[in-house]
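At this stage, I put together one protein's amino acid sequence and its backbone structure tokens, which the following lines show:
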Amino acid sequence: MSSHKTDKATKTPSIETVTDLTSLRSLNVELKEYLDRTNNAELHELYPGVERMEYDFIAERQNVYATNLVEATAHLIKGCLGAGILGIHEGYMHGGLWTSLATNVLIGFVVQYNMLLLVHSAQKMYIRLRVPKLSYPDLVEAVIATGPLKCIRGLSKVFRYSVDCFLFIGFCSTCCIFEIMIARTIKELMESISTNFKNWQLPISIYILVVAIPLFFISMIRNLKHLAPFSIVADIFCGVCVLITIYYSILERKHDEVRPAWKSVHGLFRFCGICLYSLDGIGVTLPIENSMAKPQYFYIVVQWGMSIVLLSVASVGFFGYWSWGEACRSPITVHMPKDDASIILQFLLTMMFAVTFSVHLWVPFRTIWHYIGWRHNRNRGHWERFYRGIYVMILTCTSVIFSDLSNWMSFVGNFFLSTIVFIFPAFIDSLVIWGERNFRHLRLKLLRNTVIITIGFVMCCGAIYSYIE
């Protein structure tokens, strides 16, 4: 223990270090102990009068930065509301007005349900494995390694790395799009309020490099607890932006034009990808639950948070397409008049997406830190910030190189999101509930999970079809 970071007074590992080390531990020990308990009949024999004590994962968590319900809800809203909300009206244009609205509501409820499904499965595994918390990749590995399908137990690491890859690519593309959106918004704002900037016509890459400076510093915040005040303020900004957007949409509406309710299958698949990209937050679900002081009330966070997210996305998409029709372009701010309210709106948007960038950055960086953090037992905080800075610079370089390919990055995010939002949570839940005594109830759950997995596969194929077509 001498090589670990220690508190000056006690010379014992700090809580922060213990938490990091716990999160970096291999699950091999816990998985082996669980399999030994389930396979060895002697371990199930209890002394007379003695009952087996159920593991209390809440009491075992040692998190000095635990978040309350309000903070967790703010993080979930920021984790779900992405850059896609600026382009959701264009998605409505592809799918048709009323078809897109109905599909939007349906996808929103399914995403919310899958979040709860994932957390419910994770909390069951906490008790089985006697561990206080699990990440999404940890959960997949544990479920496969201990599940009823013994033929695939040896592939648990493969499933873990697959989820790591899907989450990493999805969140990296999302972070890049956030950075590009912020840069484009500032570019449009500066050119609209200053004739000098309009005459200079600076390339978008310059604005991306300028935006990278504040993003670099806000990315140095290592704990979600410290991001909570910023998330709450950003959520207020987001609400104001949504209201102003609806106001301008109604104000600019030409009532003599009729919007089609349905367009085509190709357009519907295109809309599904944009919609899922606009309100998905499956990647931040378990990190938020793991950081909560009362994780047993996570369903409240999902109910309130996803209701706000769904209402915001549906409102911007519906009224945006209802107002500007086939002339829809992203971001939605390009349609607004250049008055004082619109300028304030764009400033609020840039601040909101800067905070959202830092929240989304937290998940892919934890993936990187999981594999390299064990090399730095001393000064872990300094090393983590060092790698965070390098990671932000890599994302910035990627945004500069592919600044005109945001649609392609959105496709990468949508394709992988369909897998980790629909397929994996339902598959995990099927393995966790396998063997329940109520056979009729089990069959209903398995049928439900089969439907969700089928939706995931259809959306993956639809993403390819919509972009090839």
